[in-house]
Design brief:
Blueprint (H helix, E strand, L loop, with lengths): L2 E5 L2 E3 L5 E8 L8 E7 L3 E8 L5 E3 L7 E6 L4 E6 L8 E7 L5 E2 L3 E5 L2
Length: 114
């Protein structure tokens, strides 16, 4: 059974940092592209960042230079380091398998507020 479990969300002040992690199981993690997607009630879904099986990375323009995606294929973990957070980064963040997005975690809430 494919499982994706996010952790690391929380409340942070503007300018602060958070590190999100996603523990993957039930599939050959190293063989899959992985994506972080966020969703807010008004804005809808936004692809935040992706990393393919060859470690090529991509970022939405809104987070470029502030967020860093990485993966550990030994620990089967996907990570999103988020720096210089802004109030508009407030969202539920989902770990998603592949750019086809066939499996999703339950999400972790990030709130950026003073």
């Amino acid at each position: 059974e494919v499982q994706l479990v996010e952790s690391g969300g929380g409340l942070v002040q503007p300018g602060g940092s958070l590190r999100l992690s996603c523990a993957a199981s039930g599939f050959t993690f190293a063989s899959y592209d992985m994506t972080w997607v966020r969703q807010a009630p008004v804005k809808g879904l936004e692809g935040v960042s992706g990393i393919d099986s060859g470690y090529m990375k991509s970022y939405a323009d809104s987070v470029k230079g502030r967020f860093t995606i990485s993966r550990d294929n030994v620990k089967n973990t996907l990570t999103l380091q988020m720096d210089d957070l802004k109030p508009e980064d407030t969202d539920v963040y989902y770990c998603v398998r592949g750019y086809v997005m066939d499996y999703w975690g339950k999400g972790t809430l990030v709130t950026v507020s003073s």
